[in-house]
């Protein structure tokens, strides 16, 4: 039902929208799970099934707003909508009230479309889509896949447009997938960084901050190392003749290598090695202290356990 | 008699036949069985020619059994002396895998070898074979065997210290017999003193008298006496007993080392005359303990100590002043002393010969070379492995019933509903 779009419109998605959708979904999921548990507290009759399967996670619905300038559609924000599951329509009055409120704060933003969660587009979505067409003649549909697939590296977000295609002689609207880019404002970058790294809220002590900082550096270096290794293997294979020579790639590798070393002078070496040795000495000192502490514990325990004339009473171990 | 000879010959044939690694267990059981019946032992003195048939490298286990029987039977000293080269050859070429099946026999063979070598007053003969024996008997370089102390004893008697270094430099983590440990570290300390590596000597001697002991033993006393002398030479003072010294040692050692403690107090005054008087007073004691040489070194180290003290006060000093404050005979002697100390790396200074001034410097090490990086890296690695071992020991002790019982008894004084981490079965 979905094929790639050819409308030539570029979409720019802000992270705020993604966070909003996922937040909405998580909240609702937590609420239904909680209410599902409290209702199934009553013992099952006849000791039937061991336990009911958790209720299927609900779909959430909402509206996305943003700006359209020419061929670029920039989606800035989103808000939630009430969905009437019996009539499969969105609550119109609510939508309009919300739209008015948002218009007051963000005069430039228009309703660009709507969002929902799920793994793929469904038939019922077309109805909702059509109902929005009177606000925006070409609304967009943002779909978030809440299933966590660890092997998948891309964002589980897809943006769909509608196109009029002639199928079996009937002109029909079908959803077509479009590509999008992520666009961030400075404030969004900071918040995403914060969420990604889960730094302690009060800034933490110096130790945790240092540990977090070093972990970051460690993962960065690990990634660099693995990439250099890939390049190295590639070059070795090329040398052995297993892979055909690619001169443009070789030129790029050469330019990369020419960039190192950045500084080469005796004074730099001296200073660098001095700092390096200082850090090593600090590590050595830390290890020493650690070892001495352990040694002290061992000696105390040994004295308590095996010394025949140990001190009775008075000295008790720390609880 | 003939029957006995036959069994022995059949045994030899078996030994020669079963040479593959899988057969060793079988061979071992066979040999153990033959050991128990009298036939082999009665043939003891006549086993010599049979041994010539066997190859020590391939038939190590069989060779070992026969050799042990031969040596423990009633043979004369000359026969043993004649056999010495073959024993040496055996020790050098035997296979470690075979030996470990019958380690007690191996140890008795080596003992016999060592006794013979000492009787002949040629300890130097025994050094290389015993060293290879030690290396073969060890399961890992961290294990102490009974042969270690024998080996070190031979090195000391022969005054050949270099071969022992490769054995001494390994850190020991496992030991079976406390006496072995004491002897090993005592001899090790003496070897390091002979090599003038006083800091390592201090470590070894320290290990002797701080080992856990229920009753005082003579080795610890002697080690403590030497320890006092060496620490006076090395750092000018004797450190107090560390926390992990056993209570027995702490209470009783000082009673036996009174002369040495007097020397310590005399040394602290820093005056030659005081120390010499003290030495004269206790000279018989020092001589009977064979420590007179060390005591004389203590005396000569006094001037070094005083010169070092001068570096902390002055930046430059004339040679005449040095000789005055350190009570030396003239500036020439002072110059000689300072030169030696600079060469040994004990102080950092330059001597200006034109006006006879000595300028003291700071440690010029600036820690900016790659060698320093390597050195630090090695030290850190060593420390990490040591730390792992320590945490393992810590856990082990925490689960030890003796420890838990003692802790549990002290815990019962708390309230009933207190968090009690010791299970009641230990109370």
Automatic annotation (TrEMBL), chain A:
Output a single Gene Ontology CC term carried by this record. cytoplasm
- Provide an example Pfam family for this protein: MitMem_reg
Compartments, record wording? Cytoplasm; Nucleus
This protein's UniProt keywords:
Cytoplasm, Nucleus, Signalosome
Extract the Gene3D superfamilies matched here.
Cytidine Deaminase, domain 2
Entry's PANTHER family?
Answer: COP9 SIGNALOSOME COMPLEX SUBUNIT 6 (PTHR10540:SF8), EUKARYOTIC TRANSLATION INITIATION FACTOR 3 SUBUNIT F-RELATED (PTHR10540)
Q: What does this protein do?
A: Component of the COP9 signalosome complex (CSN), a complex involved in various cellular and developmental processes.
What is the protein name given in its UniProt record? COP9 signalosome complex subunit 6
Upper taxonomic lineage: Eukaryota, Viridiplantae, Streptophyta, Embryophyta, Tracheophyta
UniProtKB/TrEMBL annotation, chain B:
Give the matching PROSITE patterns: PCI
Q: Which residues form the PCI domain?
A: 197-365
Q: Which example biological process does GO assign this protein?
A: ubiquitin-dependent protein catabolic process
Where is this protein found? Cytoplasm; Nucleus
The cellular component terms of Gene Ontology attached to this UniProt record, alphabetical and capped at eight, are:
COP9 signalosome; cytoplasm
Record key words, sorted: Cytoplasm, Nucleus, Signalosome
Q: Where on the tree of life does the source sit, at the highest rank?
A: Eukaryota
Pfam families, alphabetized: COP9_hel_rpt (PF22788), PCI (PF01399)
Family to which the UniProt record says this protein belongs: Belongs to the CSN3 family.
Q: What is this protein called?
A: COP9 signalosome complex subunit 3
Give the organism, scientific name: Rhynchospora pubera
């Amino acid at each position: 039902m979905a094929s790639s779009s050819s409308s030539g419109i570029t979409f720019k998605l802000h992270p705020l929208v993604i966070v909003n959708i996922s937040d909405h979904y998580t909240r609702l999921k937590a609420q239904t799970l909680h209410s599902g548990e409290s209702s199934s507290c009553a013992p099952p009759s006849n000791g039937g099934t061991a336990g009911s399967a958790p209720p299927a996670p609900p779909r959430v619905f909402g509206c996305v707003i943003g700006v359209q300038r020419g061929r670029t559609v920039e989606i800035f924000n989103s808000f939630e909508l009430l969905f009437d599951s019996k009539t499969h329509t969105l609550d119109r009055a609510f939508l309009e009230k919300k739209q008015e409120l948002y218009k007051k704060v963000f005069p430039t933003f228009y309703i660009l479309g709507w969002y929902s969660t799920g793994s793929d587009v469904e038939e019922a979505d077309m109805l909702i889509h059509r109902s929005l067409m009177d606000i925006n003649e070409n609304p967009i549909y943002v779909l978030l896949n809440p299933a966590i697939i660890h092997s998948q590296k891309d964002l589980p977000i897809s943006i769909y447009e509608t196109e009029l295609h002639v199928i079996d002689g009937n002109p029909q609207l079908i959803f077509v997938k479009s590509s999008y880019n992520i666009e961030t404002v400075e404030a969004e970058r900071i918040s995403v960084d914060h969420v990604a790294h889960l730094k302690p809220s009060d800034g933490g002590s110096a130790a945790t901050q240092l540990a977090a900082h070093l972990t970051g550096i460690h993962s960065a270096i690990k990634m660099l190392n693995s990439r250099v290794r890939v390049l190295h293997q590639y070059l070795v294979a090329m040398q052995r003749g297993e892979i055909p020579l690619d001169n443009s790639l070789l030129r790029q590798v050469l330019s990369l290598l020419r960039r190192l070393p950045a500084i080469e002078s005796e004074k730099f070496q001296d200073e660098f090695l001095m700092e390096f040795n200082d850090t090593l000495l600090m590590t050595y000192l830390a290890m020493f202290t650690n070892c001495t502490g352990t040694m002290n514990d061992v000696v105390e325990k040994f004295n308590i356990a095996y010394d025949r004339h140990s001190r009775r009473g008075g000295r008790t171990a720390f609880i | 008699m003939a029957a006995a000879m036959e069994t022995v010959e059949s045994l030899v044939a078996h030994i020669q036949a079963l040479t593959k690694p899988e057969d060793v267990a079988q061979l071992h059981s066979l040999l153990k069985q033959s050991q128990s019946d009298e036939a082999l032992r009665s043939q003891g003195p006549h086993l010599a020619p049979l041994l010539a048939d066997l190859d020590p490298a391939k038939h190590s286990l069989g060779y070992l059994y026969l050799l042990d029987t031969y040596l423990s039977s009633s043979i004369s000293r000359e026969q043993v002396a004649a056999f010495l080269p073959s024993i040496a050859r055996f020790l050098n070429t035997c296979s470690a895998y075979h030996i470990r099946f019958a380690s007690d026999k191996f140890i008795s063979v080596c003992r016999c070898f060592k006794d013979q070598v000492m009787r002949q007053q040629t300890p130097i003969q025994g050094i290389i074979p015993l060293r290879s024996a030690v290396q073969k008997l060890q399961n890992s370089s961290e294990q102490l065997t009974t042969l270690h102390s024998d080996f070190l004893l031979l090195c000391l008697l022969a005054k050949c210290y270099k071969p022992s270094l490769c054995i001494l430099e390994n850190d020991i983590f496992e030991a079976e017999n406390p006496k072995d440990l004491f002897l090993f570290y005592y001899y090790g300390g003496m070897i390091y003193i002979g090599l003038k590596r006083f800091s390592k000597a201090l470590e070894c001697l320290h290990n002797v008298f701080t080992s856990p002991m229920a009753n005082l033993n003579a080795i610890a006393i002697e080690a403590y006496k030497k320890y006092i002398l060496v620490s006076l030479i090395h750092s000018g003072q004797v450190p107090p007993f560390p926390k992990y010294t056993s209570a027995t040692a702490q209470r009783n050692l000082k009673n036996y080392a009174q002369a040495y403690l007097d020397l310590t107090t005399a040394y602290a005054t820093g005056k030659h005359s005081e120390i010499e008087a003290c030495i004269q007073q206790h000279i018989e004691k020092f001589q009977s303990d064979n420590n007179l040489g060390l005591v004389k070194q203590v005396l000569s180290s006094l001037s070094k100590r005083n010169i070092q003290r001068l570096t902390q006060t002055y930046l430059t000093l004339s040679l005449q002043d040095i000789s005055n404050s350190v009570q030396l005979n003239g500036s020439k002697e002072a110059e000689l002393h300072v030169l030696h100390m600079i060469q040994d790396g004990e102080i950092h200074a330059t001597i200006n010969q034109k006006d006879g001034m000595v300028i003291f410097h700071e440690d010029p090490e600036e820690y900016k070379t790659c060698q320093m990086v390597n050195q630090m890296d090695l030290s850190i690695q060593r420390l990490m492995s040591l730390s792992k071992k320590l945490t393992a020991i810590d856990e082990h002790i925490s689960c030890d019933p003796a420890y838990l019982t003692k802790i549990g008894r002290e815990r019962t004084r708390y309230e009933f509903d207190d968090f009690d981490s010791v299970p009641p079965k230990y109370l």
